[in-house]
Amino acid sequence: MIQLKIISGSTADTTQVVRRFPFRIGRAPENDLRLEVPGVWDNHLTLEFQKSEGFMLRTAPDTFAAINEQPLTSARLRNGDIISFGSAKIQFWLAAPHQRGLQLRELCVWTLLVGVTAFQFMLIYRLIR
C-alpha cells in the first residue's frame, strides 16, 4: 500500500491511502482522487504498479507533471517523491505495514510456560516423597 499526502490546495494536509491500481487522479468525478484545483485536467495522472518496475506514474496525453521539479510523462516513483501537476502538489509515501495481532501466540507461550512450571513442581513433589 502507498499513501499520497496532499501538500497544496484546499485539501492540504490530508492523506489518501491507495490500495488498488491503477489509481487515477484528476478533476473528473470517476477518478480515485478528485482534485478541483487550477491546472488539473479531468484525467491528469495514473499511478500503476508493475512487478518488474515498481510504482509508475503516467500522465495523460498533453498534460504536464513533474516529480521533484523534473518534468516528465512517465517515471518510476520513489519514497518521498513530490508530484507537481497544475497547482497541486502531492507527496508519495509507502504506507506503514499492517501488523497482525500477536495475542494468540502470546497466549500459547504463556500456557506452555505455566504447563512446564506445573510439571516441574509435580516432579519435585514426587521426588521429595
Describe the protein in words.
The chain is α+β, with helices and mostly antiparallel strands and 129 residues long. The protein has two domains: 93 residues, Sandwich (Tumour Suppressor Smad4), CATH 2.60.200; 31 residues. 20% of the residues lie in helices and 37% in strands. It is built from one helix and eleven strands; from the N terminus they run βββββββββββα. The strands form two sheets. It has a six-stranded antiparallel sheet, with no helix packed on it. A five-stranded mixed sheet has the order 4-3-5-6-9, with no helix packed on it. A hairpin with a 7-residue loop joins β1 and β2. The longest helix has 26 residues. The model has no long low-confidence stretch (mean pLDDT 91).
